[in-house]
Design brief:
Elements: H1 2-56, H2 60-74, E1 77-82, E2 87-90, H3 102-108, E3 115-121, E4 124-132, E5 141-148, H4 150-200, H5 215-263, H6 272-300, E6 306-309, H7 310-327, E7 331-335, E8 341-344, H8 348-363, E9 369-377, E10 380-386, H9 394-399, H10 418-428, E11 432-437, E12 443-452
Parallel strand pairs: 7-9
Antiparallel strand pairs: 1-2, 1-5, 3-4, 4-5, 6-8, 8-12, 9-10, 10-12, 11-12
Helix pairs in contact: 1-2, 1-4, 4-5, 5-6, 6-10, 7-8, 8-10
EC number: 2.7.13.3
Keywords: Kinase, Membrane, Phosphoprotein, Transferase, Transmembrane, Transmembrane helix, Two-component regulatory system
InterPro entries: HAMP_dom, HATPase_C_sf, HATPase_dom, His_kinase_dom, HisK_dim/P_dom, HisK_dim/P_sf, Sig_transdc_His_kin-like_C, TCS_sensor_his_kinase
């Protein structure tokens, strides 16, 4: 943002400077040219007056002497012709190409009183002025003075250089002001961006208000700060309600199950199925409450991560679930390096593996294999639990990590919170979870955790 603001300010300053400096330079150049021609016309008329006096006294030699002296003094060329257009004096070296005499003839013919223009002598740019020798009456001849434009051009170039230096100085000052202004505006914007990102990431602290910058940004920062505080209060209240409600439900559910079990001897044979169904639903509700409590603890945990050996955790959880897998005709394999360690909050990896293995066993067909593997990828440890079930579509895999989502046709009894709990535990440990498609069928549940060493 700072670069864009700086580019905008400097572009505007450059346009303004160009709009002022270019016309000013052009006006000065034209004015300097007009002043130089006016001075040359004055000098030519003074010289013509002296030559006219010399001719009136019958002294043409004086005309030649005046021509050479003036040409030497001005560093240019002087040409003089008589009333018939014949050369009377010329200061060019012998053999040099004569200049066109059109301006002299025009002055002699009375077409113009003074003729001026730009010409070139031996490759040198010059300005020339032609005047009559006897103005007012019939001219006795005509005089042309040509001087180099170097002095005039030097003054013009010097002015352009001064303009350029001033423009660069103004642009530099404008750049300093623009940098300060861009930082003044950009700093609170960056603070707001950081605060918004922290809020989106679930940071506990509210957004810090911007103490500098435009009033509009300060008001926006205060509004964002209030919004962040309000959102965190609402989220904290929701989590507190879920935690307290789940905790308060545990005891009544346990008492309800005990009463249902005590009713078993008194239930007639026809009602035993309903009693067992009630017990199953009670167990499912108790599992749901336990999972909600686990998710609440994962969101609010302040426990530091600890080193965990992946091979030990995977081996222990596989040993627990292997009897269940054998009862269902499913093979459970564990494979990976023995020296890989990860950082995770206490008990998180065990719960993650329990939930993933439970889900995999619920969908794995008899005769299939569930593989638990782990490896290092880009400095992180990936733990894979791969089943050979029917698999999920891309959209279903994205939705499966959301709370209470269940796949179409899933068996009854699930809560839809297992994968959501896995995600919460992984994120609390500084990791993440994704679901990939397995080959040829099934789901590859990938847990990525920070590695050690």
């Amino acid at each position: 943002m700072t670069r864009r603001l700086l580019f905008t300010y400097l572009s505007l300053a450059l346009v303004v400077l160009a709009g002022l400096a270019l016309p000013l330079g052009y006006v000065y150049q034209r004015s300097e040219q007009q002043r130089a021609f006016a001075q040359l016309e004055h000098d030519a008329e003074v010289l013509a007056a002296f030559m006219d006096t010399a001719l009136s006294r019958g002294n043409p030699g004086q005309v030649v002497l005046l021509a050479h002296e003036s040409a030497h003094r001005w560093g240019g060329e002087v040409d003089v012709v008589d009333a018939a257009g014949r050369p009377m004096a010329a200061t060019r070296p012998e053999g040099a190409t004569p200049l066109p005499a059109g301006d002299l003839h025009a002055v002699l013919a009375g077409q113009v009183q003074i003729s001026s223009g730009m010409t070139e002598v031996a490759g040198v740019p010059m300005m020339s002025v032609a005047v009559p020798l006897h103005p007012g009456n019939r001219a006795q001849g005509a005089l042309r003075v040509s001087v180099p434009t170097a002095a005039m051009n030097a003054r013009i170039h010097q002015f352009w250089y001064v303009l350029a230096i001033v423009a660069v100085s103004v642009l530099a000052c404008g750049a300093l002001v623009a940098v300060g202004l861009a930082r003044w505006i950009g700093r609170p914007v960056r603070l707001l961006e950081r605060a918004t990102r922290n809020l989106a990431d679930g940071a506990a602290a509210p957004a810090a208000p911007a103490v500098t910058g435009p009033p509009e940004l300060r008001r926006l920062a205060a509004t964002l700060d209030a919004t962040a505080t309000r959102l965190q209060d609402l989220i904290a209240a929701q989590r507190s309600f879920v935690g307290h409600a789940s905790h308060q439900l545990k005891t009544p559910l346990a008492a309800l199950r005990l009463r249902l079990e005590n009713l078993e001897p008194d239930v007639a044979a026809g009602g035993e199925a309903n009693l067992r169904a009630a017990l199953v639903e009670t167990d499912r509700l108790a599992t749901l409450v336990d999972t909600l409590l686990a998710m609440t603890r994962a969101e609010h945990t302040s426990q530091p991560s600890e080193p965990v050996a992946v091979a030990d955790a995977a081996g222990e959880r596989a040993a627990v679930w292997r009897p269940v897998a054998e009862d269902r005709g499913v093979t459970l394999t564990v494979r990976g390096p023995d020296d890989l360690w990860v950082r995770a909050i206490p008990g998180a990896l065990d719960q993650i593996l329990d939930n993933l293995l439970s889900n995999a066993l619920n969908i794995a067909p008899a005769g299939s294999t569930i593989a638990v593997t782990w490896r290092v990828v880009a400095g992180l440890v990936e733990v894979h639990v791969v089943d050979a079930g029917a698999g999920l579509t891309d959209d279903q895999r994205d939705q499966a990590l959301q709370p209470f989502w269940r796949a179409p046709g899933a068996a009854k009894g699930g809560t839809g919170l297992g994968l959501a709990l896995v995600r919460k535990l992984a994120e609390a440990s500084g990791g993440r979870v994704r679901l990939d498609a397995a080959e040829p069928t099934g789901v590859d549940a990938v847990v990525v955790l920070p590695g050690i060493g």
